[in-house]
């Protein structure tokens, strides 16, 4: 097994590089009453997003194979049908996908009324210039059998379907649109406009009053603004097809009673239509709004999640009974606000291939095992910060940021669980109880442990990319894109610990087996916390105990460490393997009696130390010669604002 596996690592780094310059592309569907996508064929890079805007008639975007146009491929992307009467004004609902690789993607409109696909209404992303070209696909579609699939009513998958509603449209007391029919899975985005509005869910029978039911409904606060667009949005996700009723609770000018209300999926006839709701609201008593805002949905400012409005702090452990302060089990559906806190949800489809290798299953289960621990650690600390003994340690803004780290870690974990479940593989159950007593001694110790956990996950993910990037290429964007988020999380914790945000220009690769061993050795309490393995024989390597550090006087750099040597190893030839940035690996010898070992001068920032019985062993094989470890260590100089 090679140490770096250069080709797959380069692929992962190229993916991260492309994300930094990701482009946004818009494609119109049916504009000017034409049965066409415009542009019909596009080039896109990994990380680019493509938004489809729908015009006249009733169109959808569906993914096919080149060989079988006009038929939705298995696990293919589908936007859902979007009716719109206007030929030149886009529907309020659009659909966005993210490009995960540069393989060709083939799309069509499946509308059977007029056989849109067979009439040439097709589209391609990254089609080849020869062979299976876009023109060849279009010609093939024109000869395809009818009817196209899927039918009207099929739910969206593989992208973000979003309904945009203006709050206070054009300075008027109205939501626009205010009466729509939408599909389950659609994200409804309310955009605030002048002057001072709110968004509150009600029942049909009691308009202008918050809905009365277990868990309540969504509530977005009053947001005064003088500009349009304001950049302030509120998002909720439709989880069922039931009618939804909402209103603005502003009592000045009686907004709700004056007609500032709306409905989603209301009946078109009978006694519970939108007009009936509006008529009932006209005579309703003064409006009210719930005491806690935001509630259930996600409030954002220019895309950044806002957890605190008017002194109310969003508490992820009490907002939804499904969490209850405990780690959500792998595979459970999270409430909508988790995605809001994280800055986005996991995709519905990772562009999985037809199969998964055994090695990929092993590394995904290892990464999930590590992230189970990170989620538990973050959740415990956040509870203490938000409502426990550390509640005075940081201002609310910092607490909210740490709360978002909890949500992001939950979303990261879904990458592994979604994939394992997709291929019918076992996920790793949550440990019954981690030994977190030492980690929760005080807030600084907890932060240090959080940083260690993040470096474990980052290092193991780099190793995983090098292991499966070639055999399971879909895994590269799925895994690599999470590294950036975790690196930003670790930068935040670095700053809180008085270290430079980015300790080195590259992250440290850590073999997956060592990362899982670290969690097991430090925090496992029983067999339920044992690391996953294919043969059930995985064991935790002993802890590496660093008893002392010798600092260089002029720089405070760690020059030498003293480690505890196991009794049965004293006098033997022992070494410290140092794993640093850029995939660096160095060895220094350990004095068999005193336990002293030099720290290589070339190291910077955080490094991992492993006691071994041999030197010159490749990083991927260190677990076979490990005596104790790994252990993370900060070797570089600390800094403060006075140094700038």
3D architecture notes:
The protein has nine helices and 30 strands. The chain has helices at residues 6-20, 134-142, 274-281, 336-342, 358-387, 396-422, 443-468, 475-496, 512-523; strands at 24-29, 37-38, 41-42, 49-54, 57-59, 62-64, 82-84, 93-98, 105-108, 122-125, 160-167, 175-176, 179-180, 187-192, 196-202, 219-224, 232-237, 244-247, 261-264, 298-301, 304-305, 308-309, 312-313, 546-551, 558-563, 574-580, 584-590, 596-598, 606-612, 626-634. The protein has four domains: 6-142, Sandwich (Immunoglobulin-like), CATH 2.60.40.420; 162-306, Cupredoxins -  blue copper proteins (Immunoglobulin-like, Sandwich), CATH 2.60.40.420; 344-529, Ferritin, core subunit, four-helix bundle (Ferritin, Up-down Bundle); 546-643, Sandwich (Immunoglobulin-like). Strand 24 (546-551) and strand 25 (558-563) form a beta hairpin. The strands form seven sheets. Strands 1, 2, 4, 8, 11, 12, 14, 17, 20 and 21 form a ten-stranded mixed beta sheet that branches. A five-stranded mixed beta sheet has the order 13-19-18-15-16, with helices on one face. Strands 3-10-9-6 form a four-stranded mixed beta sheet, with helices on one face. The protein is of the alpha+beta class and 644 residues long.
What does this entry show, briefly?
By secondary structure, this protein is an alpha+beta fold.
* CATH topology (fold) name of the largest domain: Ferritin
Q: What fraction strand? A: 15-25%
Mean pLDDT: 83
Please give the number of β-strands.
30
Give the CATH architecture of the largest domain. Answer: Up-down Bundle
Rg is: 28 Å
CATH class assignment of the largest domain: Mainly Alpha
Q: Estimate the global geometry from the Cα principal axes.
A: globular
Distance from first to last alpha carbon: 44 Å
- Runs in which pLDDT lies below 50 for 5 or more consecutive residues are 1-21, 310-326, 637-644
Helix content: 10-25%
What about the largest sheet?
10 strands, mixed
The computed structural class is alpha+beta
For CATH, the homologous superfamily of the largest domain is named as Ferritin, core subunit, four-helix bundle
Number of helices: 9
Number of domains: 4
